[in-house]
Amino acid sequence: MHQTPSDDRMKREARLLKEGRKKYIRELNKQLLQLRHWTEDAEPEDASETARRFYRIVHTLKGSAPMFGFARIGTLAENLVEHWEWSQDEEAVASPEARARFRRCSQASLALVLELELEIDTIARELEPDEQQGQLQRTLTPPQGERLLVIDDDDVLRAYLVRRLKLDGYEVDEAADVSSAQRLIRERSYDLISLDLMMHPDSGYELFEFLKEDPNLKLVPLIVLSGRSDVYDKVRCFYFGADDYVVKPFQYEELAARIYSLLKRTKTFEQMAFRDPLTGVYNRRYFDHQIQVELQRVARYPGTISMVFIDIDRFKSINDTYGHPIGDLVLQGLAHLLQANLRATDLIARFGGEEFVVVLPGTSAADAKKTIEGILRLTHQGPVAQNEGQSFHITFSAGVSEWQPDLTLSEWIRRADDAMYEAKQNGRNRVMLYTGDAAGTETDAAARKMVLIADDDNILRSILMAKLKHLPIDFKEAADGEEAYLELLGSPVDLCILDGVMPRLDGYGVLERMRERGTRPPHTKVLVLSGRSREEDTSRGMQLGANAYMHKPFSMVELELKVKELLELS
Fold it and tell me: Which parts of the sequence carry Phosphohistidine (predicted)?
């Protein structure tokens, strides 16, 4: 067929556009590395200049990406521009708040940069489908220790897939049948599983229930490989929990791209869902999941494992004196110190506020204590954070508890928590081993104290009771001041934790009424909690007879110490 000059020109333009798009993506990858670095570096040497450079890159990207047909990249860049628009204001970048603002913006930008990475990886695969896998891998992030399980009863195909995946940098195990696969899954952790649907003697369907009934395996990506392209099979697999479905015969490059995409997406979602955005360590949600995995591993292969609770000493005074941005820097500094001095196999999570928990598999309580004491000594040797030439030093208190087969998880956590509180009571700046029920599990019922928690926030009441329940005390609750007043007139109360602001009658009104009517029980002590930090509120509470006063938000550690002090608990 004869081609006109117009046809030749269109082909040449299409070829040039494709080459331009490829070159654009290659250059964009370099810029993306810089953006990712800045979002993870909360303390650059020159925050103002770095913010300007960040803005220049994403602003240019916003305008150029749509020209090459990358509308999604342009949209993400536009969202990033909004975060960094302040860097174009001379007063803003010269302000003392510039560093703190940089930190907030870098944290807010992380999710968008991760989305940008996924989008660019997807485009790179679309632009270079016919090039060698090695060329593709130069564009994509190489595997970083991911372990895969290939399940297929076809010995030839299975061997081929294992060899190719290993060449691509993955760690790979293989199984020829369902029972062998189940044994491997019980013994090891996998980042992705590929499953042949039609096998003998059991089909791949038999493995679905095994995988999906275990909460620890539900998050593992699953790719089904099948010689059948029947829609019913595909729909059934997706309903059972498959993440992808590939029909045989297939090109290896396609499967490799699907595996890479699933692993990348899973890693990104994990970072967004399971990481504490401030410190980068795992969050409570991930801890609750992973600790079950660790205990199941100990059940299969008996060994030692220890838990450590760590709480920064006098952290509230840091926030009160220097402000929350400095408090955030201190939290980040301690998290970095822990990550740099613990093993990759140790689990570090931010448990809430200034509290961290560390789980050390294969470690006795005594060895865990030595490890954490070594990290505590490092806090004595230098600051954990610096800001505008000022250094910030901290110490922490830590409690260590070793797992015992007869323990429940909640009891194990409580023991580490108790040991940490004991470290606080013994002067802070130390690591204590759990040695027994210091809270007095054998205490007489008659020696138990009664505490009334009066607060209209039922969630806060529940949190307080959960945090204090290991002490030798019983609880009563009141949702407003009138109810609290009647409870105080009724059965004896040793301590009333009284919210300053409540409906019907506030905490100050309760104290005032008891004083005016002479109805306050002589042995009852009162701890006022208030979200207002005005000096006159504190003075008013103390004048009306409060024994102690704490501002919201408060440290649970300091609250428990105050409760123990008021109740004279050792």
Answer: 59
Mean predicted confidence (pLDDT) in 36-53: 79
Question: What are the pLDDT digits (tens) for 163-197?
Answer: 889 888 889 999 998 889 888 887 787 889 998 88
Fold of 147-273: Rossmann fold (3.40.50)
Of residues 467, 568, 466, the one with CA closest to residue 525: 568
pLDDT at 549 over 80: yes
pLDDT value at residue 134: 44
User: Which of 78-92, 138-152, 198-212 has the lowest average pLDDT?
Assistant: 138-152
Q: How many helices (H) and strands (E) does the chain have?
A: 21, 17
> Is 354 a residue of the active site?
yes
Within 10 angstroms of residue 432's Cβ, the number of other Cβ atoms is: 23
| From 354, 402, 483, 560, the catalytic residue | 354
Could you tell me the pTM of the whole model? 0.44
Give the pair of three-digit tokens for residue 233: 């099979």
Place of tokens 């505008």: 388
pLDDT for residue 226: 84
Q: What CATH number should be reported for the domain whose range is 449-567?
A: 3.40.50.2300
Please tell me whether residue 150 adopts helix, strand or coil conformation: strand
Where along the chain do its domains lie?
Answer: 7-127, 147-273, 284-433, 449-567
Contact 478, 502 (CB under 8 A): no
The arrangement of strands across the sheet holding 305-312 comes to 347-352, 355-361, 305-312, 396-402, 431-433
Q: Which residues face 525 on adjacent strands?
A: 495
**284-433 has which fold?**
Alpha-Beta Plaits (3.30.70)
Task: Compute the distance between CA of residue 453 and CA of residue 560 in angstroms, rounded to an integer.
Answer: 13
Residue 439, pLDDT score: 38
